[in-house]
Amino acid sequence: MTNIQIPDFSLVILIGATGCGKSTFAAKHFLPTEVISSDYCRGLVCDDQTDQGVTADAFDLVREIAGKRLKNRKLTVIDATNVRAAERKGWIELARKWHALPVAIILDPGIDVCIERNKTRPDRPFGAQVVQRMVSEVRRGLGGLQREGFRQVWKLASAESIETAVVARQPLWTDKRTDAGPFDIIGDVHGCSDELQTLLVKLGYHVAWSEDEGRRTVRVTPPEGRKAVFVGDLVDRGPNSPDVLRIVMSMTAAGHAYAVQGNHDRKLERWLSGRKVTIAHGLQQTIDQLEGQDLGFRETLRIFLGDLRSHVWLDGGRLAVAHAGLKEDMIGRGSGAVREFALYGETTGEIDEFGLPVRADWAANYRGATTVVYGHTPIPRADWVNNTLCIDTGCVFGGKLTALRWPEKQLVEVPAERTWSEPIRPIAAADLTSGQAEADSILDYKDVSGRRWIDTALKGRVVVAEENASAALEVMSRFALAPQWLAYLPPAMSPSETSEREGWLERPEEAFAHFRDRGVSELVCEEKHMGSRAVIAICKTASAARARFGVAGEETGAIWTRTGRAFFGNPATTEELLGRLRNAIEDAGLWNELDSDWLLLDTEIMPWSVKAGSLIECQYGPVATSSRAGLAASIDAFARTGNRGLDVAALRDHFADRAERAARYGSAWAPYVWQVDAIGDLKVAPFHLLASEGRVWFERDHVWHMELADRLAAAADGVVTRTQWRKVSLADESEMLGAIAWWEALTDNGGEGMVVKPREFVARGNKGLIQPALKVRGREYLRIIYGPEYDAPRNLVRLRERSLGGKRNLALREFALGHEALKRFVAREPLRRVHECVFAVLALESEPVDARL
Fold first, then answer.
1. How many angstroms separate the CA atoms of 33 and 22, rounded?
2. Phi, psi for residue 685 in degrees, rounded to 5
3. Listed residue (698, 709, 687, 689) closest to 817, CA to CA
4. What residues are paired with 107 via a beta bridge?
5. 273 against 610, higher pLDDT
6. Separation CA 552–CA 631 (nearest Å)
7. Buried b (16+ CB within 10 A) or exposed e, 737-776
């Protein structure tokens, strides 16, 4: 029996003459989806698997399918004769492109066996000479298969060995996904043994040294269940590389640690193996330190360093650790290119003024779901960029030795005891601006365009059509404020079901019934201000804005509309209003209470005319004026007609009724309009605290939010206005009647209406997520929306047939997307991930839904 052990991710090339049993072997040992047959692809191309005239097209198809499988890290088997080196060359190149290990399996049962098998197959009408030529080519090329690039070569030289062969799959050496940790990932040590021991102790490890027959040994006991991962560059430049190596070798031998190879470690291994290397960059110090060590230690060290891998892939694929980093398509794969990138990263090909290669910023373009932790390039502080983290904080250069706790994502650091080596290239001073902010300074069109599938915590997957995404991109690229601020766009809100009461389109009773039917027991009813929806990001200082939002200059916040546009055209106005709000936040004690130097607020800014002045002047006003003039002329005409003795009373009364409705229309927006000459003329009504440092506040109910808004209004000097609100128990008839009476009084006095919400910010029923809010608008406000005569009986009948399904589905999807955007922003995910959700909200707004709802 032949045990064929192949990597579980590889490109397997079956080699053998026609009739050798390749297809049978493939079907026995591999899944049907793993095997790509050249004969089958001929059939796909021309309906005839034996048509040699389409061989080129068939192999184009084989290569395309194989490439897609390898791209997705799937084992792939090529079922073709592959008897000539020229035929195999393309497969080697394809394997290298996708960093897969090429494996050759040769099937050679003998010429006679192949000839006999072909005789029984009517689709093989060729003679024995074809088989003889193929077998001869296979045998002639056997010795050169490894030179061609195959990492494994397996030969089955008889029918029996082919029949009894067993194929087993093994994970690549880098694949440790079954190990879920938790882990402590430690940055470049560079011989700083004392700092390493201090860090290990701080992480909860116990380090015990001893002498065993004159040999210095160490035992490191980890905290229960934890394991260390070293990112490489254990040696050079520092004062005691041997002790660092003893610690790491002891921990890996005991199964308490993983270590990946760094470029300094590789160079030391080559020197220990007697190869010619350039003695530079601290290697001489390590050589001198090893001079007094026994030969057994040095030989063990050589083997240990030589066995170190390019990277380790851990925790179900959620984490990868490499010395200098890894691109997304290299993770969990094996090739020379993977090892070189993991050791050295990527360079631009240029040399800087210090004679060192200029490194390309691969992390700025990283888009993978796997977190990559690495070192190699010393930086003043560890900083997340696109789900990657460099933890080489230059201990040997007088900086710090840094570890990352995983999955906690907590950084633990110890300072260097001294500067052990002066860096050739000075390490830049720490900057308040995060590395992620720098990476986010340019957004990639591909990150927000095309058809998108966005997974949300509240509503599962939300799909955005390509045409809607294009519409959102058009609006954002032309009109939006600085993208660094745009962490959230508010969702649409649906009205309540229509009322059957005579003369009414909307009333609170239907909103109450909607939530009662879905199992909600307690509501919060809030006054609906007639203004313009505004999201406000406000920071305690300009430096806080730069550090958290990555903006430049002296901005301390931003105010934007539902479509992501700056609310005020004048930045000075924005800053003045932010100053008033900042004082209110300070006086209310919220900075300290929330432990944050920035807040994100959902608000309404009044008067409505601040944003809708041109709408009133160019649309609503002319309609009112022309209606009054036209209807007055009609009534006058009917009056003169009646004076001549004609019976036009019914028509006259009809037009008089129309004129009365038009007059009410002309004054419907008066309560929402006033002159604004200064900031003091504005009114800001906050009703949600959306997020602050480390928190998305959807977990708190609406009572908490409204009480916080009341505190802001009480602390403000007039610019923050209070929103009237009340709790309503759906089990208490008197509370419901009181809320209805309150709504009637609000709307009779010119108010827009109220918003009815479940007390819980995120409410769920038997059928999933419940509407976060329903608006119940007053009769005169609805006149602005639907027109002067909307409440005429004949029109109400038609309007009561309005469909709310589309609007409500839209509101739920946008609500879930808004929450997801905030969650990602608070977690400091890349801005492209936040914008994926923000753009999606705007994209959904381009769906064909009645804008009057």
1. 16
2. -115, 95
3. 698
4. 156
5. 273
6. 57
7. eebbebbeebbeebbbbbbbbbbbbbbeeeeebbbbbbbb
Residue written as token pair 């879920």: 180
Q: What is the rounded distance in angstroms from the CA atom of residue 105 to the CA atom of residue 81? A: 11
Which pair of tokens denotes residue 541?
Answer: 């200082």
| Tokens 């690039």 -> residue | 149
> How far is it, in rounded angstroms, from Cα 84 to Cα 89?
9
> Which tokens belong to 675?
């002159």
pLDDT of amino acid 174: 94
Contacts of residue 5, Cβ cutoff 8 Å, sequence gap at least 6? 168, 169, 170
Helices (H), 37-84: 38-46, 55-71
How far, in Å, are 44, 255, 325 from residue 221 at the CA level? 60, 11, 28
Residues in the chain: 853
Q: What is the CA radius of gyration of the chain?
A: 36
The region of weakest confidence among 53-57, 536-540, 644-648 is 644-648
Contact 473, 563 (CB under 8 A): no
Q: How many whole angstroms separate alpha carbon 609 and alpha carbon 818?
A: 27
Query: Which two three-digit tokens encode residue 356?
Result: 């060192």
Residue indicated by tokens 């508010």: 490
CA distance 667 to 137: 95
Q: What is the DSSP string of 142-186?
A: GGGHHHHT-SEEEEE-SHHHHHH-EEEEE--TTEETT----EEEE
The residues, ordered by sequence, that sit 6+ positions from 284 with a Cβ below 8 Å of its Cβ are: none
The H or E element spanning position 831 is helix 831-844
Residue located via tokens 């195959």: 150
Backbone dihedral region for residue 678 (phi beyond 0: left; psi -120 to 50: alpha; all else: beta): beta
Query: Are the CB atoms for 374 and 325 separated by under 8 Å?
Result: yes
Q: Extract long-range pairs of 571-577: CB within 8 Å, 24+ residues apart.
A: 573/679, 576/679, 577/679, 577/682, 577/684, 577/719
The answer to whether the beta carbons of residues 543 and 552 sit under 8 Å apart is no
Give the span between the Cα atoms of 528 and 755, in whole angstroms: 6
Q: Where are the alpha helices (DSSP H) in 609-748?
A: 609-615, 621-643, 649-667, 702-715, 733-748
Per residue in 123-149, pLDDT (tens digit) is 666 778 888 898 888 898 888 999 999
Which tokens sit at 739?
């809320």
Which distant-in-sequence residues (6+ apart) come within 8 Å of 653 by Cβ? none
Q: What gap in Å lies between CA 332 and CA 325, rounded to an integer?
A: 13
Q: What angle do CA 53, 58, 59 make, to 5 degrees?
A: 115
Alpha carbons 717 and 726: distance in angstroms, whole number:
24
When pLDDT is cut at 50, 70 and 90, the band that residue 667 belongs to is confident
Residue type, 758: P
Q: Given pLDDT bands bounded at 50, 70 and 90, which one contains residue 754?
A: very high
Nearest-angstrom CA–CA distance, 157 and 29: 18
Q: Is 225 exposed, middle or buried (0-12, 13-18, 19+ CB in 10 A)?
A: exposed
Report pLDDT for 426. Answer: 76
Q: Please enumerate in sequence order all residues whose Cβ is within 8 A of that of 593, keeping only pairs 6 or more positions apart, or say none.
A: none
Distance CA 741, CA 737 (A): 6
| Contact by Cβ (8 Å): 515, 578 | no
- Residue 398, judged by CB atoms within 10 A of its CB (0-12, 13-18, 19+), counts as middle
87-125: burial string, b at 16+ Cβ within 10 Å, e else: bbeebbebbbebbbbbbbbbbbbebebbbebbeeeeebe
Band (pLDDT 50/70/90 cuts) for residue 285 is very high
> Distance between CA 721 and CA 686 in Å, rounded?
8
What CA–CA distance (Å, rounded) separates 664 from 782?
11
